[in-house]
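Agenda item 2: adenosine-3'-5'-diphosphate complex prediction
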Amino acid sequence: HQNNFQHILPGQHVYDGVLFFGYSPPETLDLVKTFHVRADDVFLVTYPKAGTTWLQEIVWLLMHEGDFEGALATPVYIRSPFLEFKDLTLNEIGLDLASTMPSPRVIKTHLPLKLAPREILVKKPKVIILFRNPKDVCVSYFNFYKCSSSFGNFQGDWPEFLAMFCEGHVDHGSWFDFTKSWWPLRELTNVKLVFYEDLKRNPFGIIKELADFLGKQHLDDVTISRIAAHCSFEKMRENPMTNHQDVYSINSQVSPLMRKGQVGDWKSVFTVQQNEDFTQIYLDKLSHLEIPFTYQL
Ligand code: A3P
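Presented output:
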């Protein structure tokens, strides 16, 4: 698994050792590093397919006192900008959207720590890191690659994608590097680490924890329950403000963003051998961190 980036295709580039597609061009990645962070920002830090959109909707609602009307009026990707994203057709940059947005901002990034805005470590905004077990991430990412023109409507098969994922030859680079880079920050008081599987198992409890972390203890249990219900997989899949069906670069006929929303779907895709190989790669790279991932509920 040497890092020779054998899968670089037209429209991709490598920035500081991390593979990106055209929608995160080098000049945008340069600007992200010096992005002006505000102390009252909330950063959502996730590797692609970890459940980012789910967390965005929850956190936006918490930060806006359960404003469901507002949430149903504007797509989540506008309310919560994707920092390093530049829409190549509309020429919209997440950075521009974020810069002019009133506080409190809920900002999404998939960058590894070394490429994130430097002021995150200085201004100490709230940071929520969302982790999901890498096998489900990989399967979800494979389906996303196939349906998204941003990734060239990937025509390869599952074994090919699995190899690319293990080598970090996918957009935003290695899941292993991303995970390693943010894991130590969980100890900081302005940082909260959440697992997708815990959110799935106990949405009310985790959303309540997030409310406490965000200084929103005054939100009552009825509001928390309503947020949990509004953000269920079924509701978000039907909701045009969260399901991304209007995003031109995603062909929902091939695979919708809201695909299955389950824990353990990887079992229907990995062969026994692939699972053994993947587990070994995981152990070699990350077992020393002892991250408590859950692979089934
Ligand atoms: P699957 O492909 O496994 O279904 P991201 O938002 O980071 O791109 O992640 C997308 C993944 O999160 C998809 O996983 C999607 O179904 C899942 N997801 C989105 N909203 C969800 C929700 N409300 N509950 C559970 N999973 C959700």
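Discussion summary: The two ends are 31 Å apart (CA to CA).
Owner for follow-up: CH.
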